[in-house]
Amino acid sequence: HNQYDWISLDQILWYRETSRALNAARGGRPLPAVAFFHIPLQEYGHPALRRSLIGTRAEEEAHGALNSGMFAAMLEEGDVMAVAVGHDHDNDYAGMLLGTCLTYGRVSGWACYGKLPRGARVFELRENKREFDSWIRTADGDAMHRFHYPSSFAGQSAK
After folding, report:
1. Cα dist. 19→38, 97, 148 in Å?
2. CA dist list (Å): 52 to 13, 32, 40
3. Cα separation of 44 and 129, whole Å?
């Protein structure tokens, strides 16, 4: 299952340059951000993350074949407060690892595998603040697995 692509060095360098430019424009203060991509980082499989899960983890994480350092880059730049991925259709959880919220969306396609009801993860951001609310909204309108970052994970930084 580990034959999926990883984030390349040129993508990490682009992220670092962009992050630093945005932070410099704010007088050196990191711009609170959420990173979205499809394949989960290897850190999604970190055992410490599982102590803080909100939501469903019904399959093993199918991350990229190589840990190329994207998570470390985000920690070092200090702007990304959450990562949102898809790929694993029977996972819709959120958890905390080293102060960063690692989340899955919800399987949204109809012609694909997945036992969870179809839906999507919603993020409600607070402008210029390192906080947000998030939940899963299903196709039939149900809202579930609601949490507030960072207070819902207080004492669960998963180091």
Report:
1. 20, 20, 24
2. 30, 22, 17
3. 24
Under 8 Å CB-to-CB from 7, ≥6 apart: which residues? 37, 41, 64, 68, 70
- Residue pair 82/149 in contact (Cβ under 8 Å)? The answer is yes
Q: Which residues pair with 123 in a beta bridge?
A: 134
69-78 pLDDT per residue, tens:
999 999 999 9
- Helices 9-25 and 70-77 sit at what angle, rounded to 10 degrees? 10
- This prediction has a pTM of 0.93
Alpha-carbon gap, residue 49 to 38, rounded angstroms = 19
Identify the residue whose tokens are 């949204």: 108
116 three-class SS: coil
